[in-house]
Amino acid sequence: MDLKNNTAQQLVEQNNKAREQLTPENKKYYEDVLVYMRTFGIFHEELETERHLMTILQDILEAQKHGESAEAYFGKNPKEIIDQLTKQFEKPSWKSIFKISGLIFLISSFYTICGVFIAPTLQINVLVLLMNGILSIALVYGAFKLLHWSIYIKKQFPKIIKFLFAWSLTMIPIGLFVLINLYAPKRGIVKIDPPFDWIAIVIILILATVYVLFKKNRDFYGALVYIVSLGFFGLLLRIPQTKELFQGGKNPTFLVLAIILPLALFGLVNWLVLRKMNDDN
Amino acid sequence: MKETQLLKGILEGCVLSIIKEQRIYGYELVQTMRNYGFTTIVGGTIYPLLQKLEKQGLITSSELTSPDGPNRKYFFITTEGEQQLEDFKDQWSSLIVKVNRILEKNGE
């Protein structure tokens, strides 16, 4: 096994396995190091981060074998040490900045498109698509920065402050997405008329299913179930045989089901996948 | 030169000298330094230093199987590193001579 040829993904998997050998105290110490280092920048080369993390883990494991704690071996100020390491990291290339922003943008656009499956008419405001994508990139970037900054905060805040902080952190992004959808100028609307609307949904669902099954990536199962169930409701709304039953999507029961059920399935499948992954480890 | 910079330079010289003797990985290096009497050295002091030396091309690294356990990132000295070590030795000897001259004179 030659570690040098390992991809970042393989190193992450090896790290997940090897980390289990740490004592609870050392694990806490190391996992703080890990999250702090991984959240340093979303655009940075993953491989460089993962190589450092693996070296540190192996050395801490060896120290542990010789009866030395992670803190005694690595140092009392892990934050300063990691700051010194990350300061010397390669600057992210424009290529990687475009690649990662583009990926977030694509995922955001995909969810935006799937969201209109259950709207009465299949139409997309290109401006909304664009703004959702930019907001998503900003939010992911912000989430990384926030997590990075929060790892080594020693100060304890009262519960109510923590709750309000977490609450506004959840609500502000949701609020921003809602605002974009409500108030974005109605320009550049692309509309797909029947019967092409349900044909478009079927094509998107087939492509997504084939892609996920081909990739065999369990991380995507929740998302796939989410959009397939959204698509299912979207089809019920559009296929001539079932269309009348749902009064063109204005039936409140239908709307509530079409919004809640896919989300619930998304949560359930992700929970199952996570449990399965934990069992495998 | 600030005191910390001076210390860093000395540490770099020591690390280069140890790596020149034998290829070594992080944990081993920390233990070796401790055995030489640098008892307060921790991994956190060594990793950024190794990273810096590698970036400067003074050392290079390679993944090799270690006698016990998984593959390790071993460090080797480069020709540039050996040159740097020679420079350090010269500077260090001349520094010792100068410092001792002062200390001995004032201690009389």
UniProtKB/TrEMBL annotation, chain B:
InterPro entries, per the entry: Metal_resp_DNA-bind_regulator (IPR052509), Tscrpt_reg_PadR_N (IPR005149), WH-like_DNA-bd_sf (IPR036388), WH_DNA-bd_sf (IPR036390)
UniProt xrefs under Pfam families: PadR
Domain spans labelled Transcription regulator PadR N-terminal: 15-86
SUPFAM superfamilies per record: Winged helix' DNA-binding domain
Cross-referenced PANTHER family: PADR-FAMILY TRANSCRIPTIONAL REGULATOR (PTHR33169), TRANSCRIPTIONAL REGULATOR RV3488 (PTHR33169:SF14)
Protein name: PadR family transcriptional regulator
